[in-house]
Prior knowledge:
The chain folds into two domains: 1-34, no CATH class; 37-117, no CATH class. It is elongated and about 55 Å long. The chain is built from two helices and five strands. Strands 1, 2, 3, 4 and 5 form a five-stranded antiparallel sheet that branches. It is of the alpha+beta class. It is 26% helix and 30% strand. The mean pLDDT is 86. The protein has helices at residues 9-23, 78-93, and strands spanning 42-51, 54-65, 71-73, 99-103, 106-110.
Amino acid sequence: TPDASSRSSAELTAWARRRKELYGFAPDPGMPTYPFHPESRNTAIAVCRFDGEGLVEAGFEPCRIDDGGRPVPCGDTDEGRRVTDYIERITRTAGLNGRLVREDGRVRIDLHTERAS
């Protein structure tokens, strides 16, 4: 991404056109500090639990990037469910086998595997 302070208007316009060709989106002009794909506002904070043998549980707290570019936990709200649905959809599209289990506003990832004894 070109530095706006050191580029001409023509260069920035050319970059905006190229970015749209490369990545298929134009950033929201109302969020100049967040020049990312609008879908990336669906995000999560990883939550992992370990014991002496390693990973016991993995999951996430669904979040939404607010207008200031900050992740805001959504938990078990309509917004949180939409974010979780989005993450589940892209997980399936990518061919990953994790199963998302919603629990008290967080989401646990069930990989259908058992730990070796």
